[in-house]
């Protein structure tokens, strides 16, 4: 039996498909609640100082809690950047 080869354009090295040009890619911090990293960064910029405050504002971390480590890392990075300034 012969294998069928599809004539598809090469996608190697392409970050996103050509039809998505101009669209901003969302990096999800919490998949359960569909909360993006930019939404968490907005909460931090608005004054959130703990993962609990971010959870109360966005719902991130309230289901399976796998994203709590990422949220805490984002909080830590923000505090380090603020201290360096």
Automatic annotation (TrEMBL):
Source organism per UniProt: Thermopolyspora flexuosa
Residues covered by the BFD-like [2Fe-2S]-binding domain: 30-76
GO molecular function: 2 iron, 2 sulfur cluster binding; metal ion binding
Family of the protein in this entry: Belongs to the Bfd family.
PANTHER family from the UniProt entry: BACTERIOFERRITIN-ASSOCIATED FERREDOXIN (PTHR37424:SF1)
UniProt-recorded name of the protein: Bacterioferritin-associated ferredoxin
Domain of life: Bacteria
Keywords, ordered alphabetically: 2Fe-2S, Electron transport, Iron, Iron-sulfur, Metal-binding, Transport
InterPro entries with a match to the protein in the record: BFD-associated_ferredoxin, BFD-like_2Fe2S-bd_dom, BFD-like_2Fe2S-bd_dom_sf
One Pfam family cited in the UniProt record for this chain: Fer2_BFD
């Amino acid at each position: 039996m012969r294998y069928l080869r599809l004539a598809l354009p090469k996608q190697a090295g392409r970050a996103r498909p050509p039809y998505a040009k101009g669209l901003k890619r969302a990096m999800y911090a919490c998949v359960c609640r569909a909360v993006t990293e930019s939404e968490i960064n907005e909460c931090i910029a608005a004054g959130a100082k703990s993962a609990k405050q971010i959870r109360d504002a966005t719902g991130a971390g309230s289901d399976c809690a796998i994203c709590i480590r990422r949220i805490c890392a984002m909080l830590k990075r923000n505090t380090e950047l603020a201290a360096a300034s």
